[in-house]
Write a structure and sequence with these properties.
The structure holds 2 protein chains of 2 kinds. In chain A, helix 1 (7-32) packs parallel to helix 6 and helix 3 (61-85) runs antiparallel to helix 4. Chain A is built from 12 helices and 4 strands; from the N terminus they run H-H-H-H-E-E-H-E-H-H-H-H-E-H-H-H. Chain A has helices spanning 7-32, 40-58, 61-85, 90-113, 138-144, 149-167, 169-179, 181-186, 191-218, 229-239, 244-267, 271-298; strands at residues 118-119, 128-129, 147-148, 221-222. Chain A is mainly α. Chain A has one domain. A two-stranded antiparallel ribbon of chain A has the order 1-4. Chain B is of the alpha/beta class. In chain B, 32% of the residues lie in helices and 27% in strands. Chain B has 17 helices and 24 strands. In chain B, the strands form 6 sheets. In chain B, strands 6-9-10-3-11-12 form a 6-stranded mixed β-sheet, with helices on both faces. Classes of the chains: A mainly alpha, B alpha/beta. Chain A binds chain B through residues 167-169, 172-173, 175-176, 179-180, 182-189, 296-304, and chain B through 74-76, 79, 85, 87, 90-96, 100-101, 103-107, 109, 112-114, 142, 155, 267, 269-273, 312.
């Protein structure tokens, strides 16, 4: 058992963090704009499929990544049209996107392509990056070097998201619309436009998350391969108050939970219980966060 | 100069369905003056200003700015034409700083980042123009209401406003803060800014304005220079007939203590104490007035009293029964009538019929509910109530949302008075009502007082408070800072108390 917890576990955790992190970084923009976005899962799955399809037909991982982002954007645009333009309920529209993504990718896969529930052949994956000079250093090399490209991109995106939200005009407007839409509207900021933009951002990043899942971490597509990661990303966003660096910490904890779960499977514990670990962790962490938030409200007698 | 008038609105008409909000309204404002716009609630002041600010489009009529015809399709257009509006409900983002609120929508940028330094520089510049200073880095939610209002004013100036619309700006201020606001208004007009001052407080009009325009039922009644009119004259113009308000009340000997509250503490959603050790008693036949500027904990006090908000500490007794922590259902079943400030948010269902609304709170009563609702009994009962309180139109099947403010209030009072056995809690009961309805509300409350009810009245209207209350307690930042019999107080001392200045003399009543 003890051998299960070592450096390679952390490395595995970082790999598993990335898809959740990318989706959560996207979703936190909608959260900041106070748009409940449950469609992260579906946008991610569409991105994963698009990446695999384009990789297969063009043999280019660059085009595959671009395609995943584009398809994520299209799904987000559909969601935005329903939620913002036509004022549909977020939950219903989000559910529709999720179900559509799940059904449509499976349909395309089986009907037009391989007639199986998975696609593994003839794919060009996203390359791993080994950092020159670092990859041979004993511990640091293993810890920092050799990940798939999008792992590094996701880390860069933490800082970019933090910058956009707190240092740019768009970020200011997103936060203003999220907290006081009427105030924003009274100043000539169009809340619907801002909401739409935030949904589009979430779509692009979820598409990227999907590409990492199918071509970065694995190099295959299976039906519903996102397996609830979009919802874990939602949990992570609540966990981190939609603040990028806190969300990143939360995402890593979820990645760690998943890594532990995978490791324990190889140790030989009953797999049905082990597979539950990330999901149990999701529920427990949300309970803990909620309780803490309530406590903070009750026990903080600060005067102002 | 192109024209003596900065603004001319001619023949403005605006119709909402069956309601004519503005009918052929003419409104002219001279450069550099404070022009008061007065009228009762529903007279069309807000509609007219929303048309000017581009929120509504007029159905007829035209607007000229500096002699030139202007088409204002949106608030952005209005801002572009140097019009600024300070809304009655502030349009600020609470967790943002003053500077962030200031720049929202017109953000100065350096490359792709926000240039907050530039914003702060301009705020300091503007401080000179306005005659007041604001810390650009303060968070709005930590700023007192008076400061937030200044941020709103400065926000308009930051966008280059020359014509400022102030919508009932004094309704949230203490008398002292209002004085300071008037000073700021004078400073601004000396700088060549023009101010449209919407209010229904005539004394403020006489004090600050150079001209006054009176609206009644959507039409312009008159525009007068201020030295050719007086308060009484304006009141008559506003209402269109003579009304006698505050016609005197009987002496009632208070009986036994019915409501007892002790050491109430509660917190707001930011974790700050919004109620700090509040205690009071109300006796039978007594009206306890809780005065204070809105937002000093009155809403929270009502909420804990009605079981809608959790107490951190303290105890509430009604008729000798401990009701601390009980639900509003239990509290109402003990016969507590509740007249909330916002009738549609709390007390009525807009889309349900008047008859159905009259049933709320009685829906488990055997008279009205056996196997299913007894429609005939309910109708008979509702009909009796609305006739007793003269609700117009006296129809049972129309949706409650179609009633006017005054009639909705009558309906709420009819039901709550029927439900209440000994206790009534009334929040801003005359808010938004015409003068006739206000009179009616006051008479009803005094009638219940005569019948030995214990009444808690929460109001920020000083005149109403001094007229109705037997005992007045002043609330400031979550505390009852003073409480005294009505006869021992005048408006000036009340004003000081509402601003948080505690009494030098000891409290007169140690109950």
């Amino acid at each position: 058992m003890a051998g299960a917890f070592n450096l390679s576990l952390v490395v595995a955790a970082i790999r598993l963090t990335t898809p959740i992190l990318l989706a959560a970084l996207g979703g936190l923009f909608t959260q900041q704009a106070n748009v409940l976005n449950i469609a992260l899962e579906g946008m991610m799955l569409s991105g994963a499929f698009a990446a695999v399809a384009i990789s297969y037909f063009t043999h280019s991982w660059v085009l595959a990544i671009l395609a995943s982002m584009f398809v994520g954007l299209i799904m987000a645009w559909i969601l935005g049209a329903f939620v913002v333009r036509f004022k549909a309920l977020n939950v219903i529209a989000g559910m529709a996107v999720n179900l559509f993504a799940s059904g449509f990718t499976a349909f395309l896969l089986r009907t037009f392509w391989v007639n199986k529930s998975e696609m593994t052949q003839g794919l060009v994956g996203i390359p791993d990056v080994s950092i020159p000079g670092l990859s041979n250093v004993p511990v640091l090399g293993e810890l920092l070097s050799g990940y798939s490209l999008l792992v590094y991109v996701s880390i860069l995106l933490i800082f970019i998201a933090q910058f956009v939200l707190y240092k740019t005009r768009l970020g200011l407007r997103i936060r203003a619309v999220g907290e006081a839409p009427q105030a924003a509207a009274s100043l000539g900021v169009n809340p619907d436009r801002i909401r739409f933009i935030s949904i589009l951002i979430s779509g692009v990043l979820c598409g990227l998350a999907g590409a990492h899942l199918s071509l970065g971490a694995l190099c295959m597509f299976t039906e519903n391969m996102t397996a609830g990661r979009g919802f874990m990303a939602m949990a992570v966003i609540f966990f981190g108050d939609a603040v990028p660096y806190k969300v990143a910490i939360g995402a890593f904890l979820f990645g760690l939970a998943e890594a532990i779960s995978m490791r324990l499977q190889s140790v030989g514990l009953p797999s049905h219980f082990i597979i539950m670990i990330p999901y149990v962790f999701t529920v427990v962490s949300l309970i803990v966060v909620s309780i803490n938030k309530m406590k903070a409200q009750v026990s903080k007698p600060s005067e102002s | 100069m192109a024209s003596e008038y900065v603004l001319e609105m001619r023949g403005i008409t605006k119709i909402f369905g069956p309601v004519v909000a503005n009918e052929d309204v003419n409104f002219k404002v001279r450069r550099g003056e404070v022009h008061a716009l007065v009228g009762e609630n529903g007279a069309g002041k807000s509609t007219l200003m929303k048309i000017l600010f581009g929120i509504y489009q007029p159905d007829a009529g035209e607007i000229c700015l500096n002699g030139k015809r202007a088409v204002i399709k949106s608030p952005s257009d209005a801002i572009g034409l140097n019009i600024g509006m300070v809304h009655q409900h502030f349009m600020l983002v609470p967790s943002f700083t003053v500077a962030q609120n200031m720049i929202l929508g017109v953000e100065p940028r350096k490359g792709i980042t926000l240039d907050l330094a530039e914003a702060e520089e301009r705020i300091r510049e503007l401080s000179g123009v306005c005659g007041f200073t604001i810390d650009p880095e303060a968070r709005i939610r930590d700023c007192p209401v008076g400061v937030q209002q200044r941020v709103e004013i400065m926000k308009a100036l930051y966008r280059g406003a020359d014509l400022l619309i102030l919508d009932e700006p004094t309704s949230v201020l203490t008398p002292d803060e209002a004085e300071e606001l008037f000073e700021i208004m004078r400073t601004l007009t000396h700088q060549g800014k023009t101010i449209i001052f919407i209010t229904h407080k005539l004394r403020e009009v006489m004090k600050t304005a150079q001209h006054v325009t009176v609206l009644r039922k959507g039409k312009t009644v008159t525009t007068l220079p201020i030295d050719e009119t007086c308060e009484q004259d304006l009141a008559l113009q506003m209402v269109g007939r003579k009304v006698e308000l505050y016609s005197g009340k009987d002496e009632v000997k208070p009986g036994e203590e019915i409501v007892k509250a002790d050491g109430l503490r509660a917190m707001d959603k930011y974790g700050r104490w919004c109620l700090k050790d509040i205690g009071f008693t109300v006796r039978a036949g007594e009206i306890l007035g809780i005065a204070g500027v809105a937002g000093n904990g009155q809403d929270e006090l009502v909420d804990v009293f009605m079981g809608l908000k959790k107490l951190s500490k303290g105890r509430i007794e009604i008729d000798g029964r401990d009701v601390t922590g009980k639900t509003s259902d239990v509290i109402r079943s003990l016969g507590v009538g509740y007249i909330p400030e916002d009738r549609y948010e709390r007390s009525m269902i807009r889309d349900a019929s008047v008859a159905e609304n009259m049933l709320l709170g009685f829906e488990r009563d055997e008279r009205f509910n056996g196997f299913g609702l007894k429609t005939d009994a309910i109708k008979k009962w509702a009909d009796k109530l609305i006739h007793e309180f003269d609700v117009q139109p006296p129809l049972l099947d129309v949706p409650a949302g179609s009633l006017s403010g005054g009639n909705a209030q009558r309906a709420v009072m009819a039901r709550e008075f029927a439900l209440s056995k000994r206790v009534i809690i009334a929040c801003q009961p005359s808010h938004g009502l015409d003068i006739g309805s206000i009179d009616f509300v006051h008479k009803q409350l005094l009638d219940r007082r005569r019948k030995g009810y214990a009444i808690i009245l929460i109001s920020s209207d000083l005149e109403e408070m001094l007229y109705l209350a037997d005992t007045i307690a002043v609330m400031y930042k979550g505390e009852l800072i003073s409480s005294f019999p009505n006869r021992d107080v005048d408006e000036k001392r009340m004003g000081l108390l509402m601003a948080g200045v505690r009494d030098a003399e000891p409290e007169e009543e140690a109950r």
